[in-house]
Amino acid sequence: MPWSSTGLLKVIWWNTSLAPPVNVRSATADDLVFVVDYVRFLRHQVGFDLLALAEVNAEDLRTILQGLNDPSLRVHDSSDRRSSLKFDTGVIYDSTKVTLEESRTLTDKFHSTTMKTGHQMIYRVTATGDPLFLITSHWPSKRTAPDGAPRRAELGTALRHRIQAIHEDTPEAFVILAGDYNDDPYADSLAEHLGATRDRTMAKRRKGLLYNPFWRKMGESHDDDHDDNNMRFCGTYYYDGGQINRWHTFDQIIFSSSFLTDKSMRLDERRCGVIATEVLWSKVLKSNQIFDHLPVFGTVELRSQA
Amino acid sequence: MTDFFQSLIRGVDAAEHAEFAHNEIRSVLESVASAINRGFGLEFSVVSLPKQMNALEALATSTIFTKPEKETWLALRNPNFAQTDWTPLARWEVSAEGFPCRIVYDRTDVQCHDRGSLEDALSEMLSSASTGGTILRMTRP
Fold it and tell me: Which of residues 85-144 of A touch B (CB under 8 A)?
């Protein structure tokens, strides 16, 4: 029986820069007001059913939720700053579209070093009845774990093990990874160790591979440098001191291959990308501002066999 | 031409590594069991218990044809009441290679990739309030 579309499930990931996983917070009250306003814009103009945020604490999440003033929205706070391992993510979700069933913090230990692999949530999608596994991650910065540091490879491998475990329990599970991996899509941690390919056919053909639509989001946003294309970007994270590139695509939403086949949920890649608006873009480019990430979005088409 | 002999060598080598890892894991768990027994007189073991399901899953599998699925747990039992059931502390998974092994309790899900990290993770689990509460419930008259 053919599938017909019944709606969309929209996922946004944004590293807000409000509360990085360090002891000192540099965000001001005005910065928080900006984030609340921007999330309101994301909800009303872009639309989201799952908004995963990084560099937030419990208070930030509460303030953002209050600012949204929408009774259908709920917050899942997975931030935790009690130990030296600081978790700084949370999710605001539309309870009419998904229901949170389970959540847990994923850590991996190598040689007594503990790493934040991610935070795993299981949502039930109202329209299809399917479980949706969402794993949010904020991996260490290049300052903490430079390129080539074993920790980057270990994180990719560790996350792959987690996804394998999900698929052992739930074959064909719908898994979405959203995060600031502090690595570009081509980095070994993501491409080799996690197995997030740019090739849809390979993702469908080879068991265990994931599909990463953000391989396509690494280049220039516009074809040329004409003045009317003033707001140009080539990534999601901006660092003015970059030696070769100032932009990196550290923020990505990655999909399990079950989203690529004929099932009740299918990736809608036309609706995946970087959300760049003048107001945030101009802040990201200014070194006196705390903001350095643009949000990214991914969309899944919900379907039924009528 | 495929060198089957080299393949065999690699297989035997992998098996030796796995055997070594499983022995290490067993030795760490024995240390935990010994500490718990010494401190509180309780038995600590890896046991197989019926899978904990949510209401929907339970409904979906509640037919006479399905056997309840089992999961492996780290669990405690009071030897003075040997007839009583094991009380689960944490879900426990070991790969065929030994490491990584996985401990899931409360809202924590930790994978350990070597002996030192397994010791760390077990130590954290034992010092959690939920483990402490379980021990108190099992040892109080």
Answer: 101, 103-114, 117, 120
Averages of pLDDT over runs of 10 residues in chain A (306 residues) are: 94 96 88 98 97 97 97 96 86 98 95 91 98 97 90 96 94 97 98 98 95 96 78 94 95 98 97 96 95 98 92
Peptide bond into B100 cis (omega under 30): yes
Domain that includes residue A84, residue range: 4-304
Determine, for residues A109 and B102 on separate chains, whether the beta-carbon distance falls below 8 Å.
no
Alpha carbons within 13 angstroms on the beta-carbon side of residue B139 total 15
Q: Are A101 and B54 in contact (CB < 8 Å)?
A: yes
CA dist A271 and A299 (Å) reads 6
Tokens 């979906």 map to which residue? B60
- In chain A, which residues have their Cβ closer than 8 Å to the Cβ of B117? 109-114
Nearest one of A133, A145, A123 to A173, comparing CA atoms: A133
Instruction: Note down the domain range covering B21.
Output: 4-139
Partner residue facing B114 (CB), from A111, A114, A117: A111
Collapsing DSSP states into helix, strand and coil, what is residue B94?
A: strand
Q: How many domains does chain A have?
A: 1
Phi/psi-derived region of residue A293, left when phi > 0, alpha when psi is between -120 and 50, beta in every other case: beta
Q: What is the DSSP letter of A161?
A: H
The whole-angstrom separation of Cα A195 and Cα A185 is 10
- All residues of chain A having their beta carbon less than 8 Å from the beta carbon of residue B111 are 106-109, 117, 158, 161-162
Place of tokens 């005005």: A30
Judged by CB atoms closer than 8 Å, whether chains meet at B113 and A108 is answered as yes
The total domain count for chain B is 1
User: By the 8 A CB rule, do B124 and B102 touch?
Assistant: no
Cα–Cα distance measured from residue A48 to residue A98, given in angstroms and rounded to the nearest whole number: 11
Q: What is the CATH number of the domain that holds A139?
A: 3.60.10.10
All residues of chain B having their beta carbon less than 8 Å from the beta carbon of residue A173 are: none
